[in-house]
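TODO from last week: model LPS export ABC transporter periplasmic protein LptC.
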Amino acid sequence: MKLLVNFSILSLILCVSCTNFNNLGKEFQQEDNFVPPPDMEFYGFRRENYDTNFKQLDSFATNAKFYNKQKLVELYESRTYTYDSNNTIAASLSGEFITINQETLFTQIYTNVIVKASNNTILYTEYLQWDNEKQQFRSPVPIRVEQEDGSWLTGSSMEGDMGLEHITIYNEVDEGDAIGVPVAEGQ
């Protein structure tokens, strides 16, 4: 028994003396491309925004992630409705992934973006930006604007307001009699 205890102590001393403790834990160091987990995460997210007595905004998402240090919100599979003062829907917006800067409210919408205005104008694109300071949409990628009569316009990019009433489409291609939407061709 004494031999077993001596052998155990000797092997323990040998293991401890051969271990380089300076490199211990380096395999767990944080890399530069590490994305921290969100500060808050909600499933079945809904947000309503009111101004005095009427609803301005109604937003739904299957998942919402809040990153407080980056002042960033991510929404997944989102739908947003804006309202007029008489509680009618002024515009609806949907996209699969949305990022919102909490300080400037600059919003980026990605993948299967659809914007429908109260004048039945529908905008289709894969990427859309909302500049809250200028109060306008911008899409640097190809778009399609459709009217309720079935006519549509396509272009390489666009700028426009929330109601899709004043739209500028760049490199416009007229795909039919697009009436009812004032469209200016960019230079």
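Done. Residues 114 and 124 are 5 Å apart (CA to CA).
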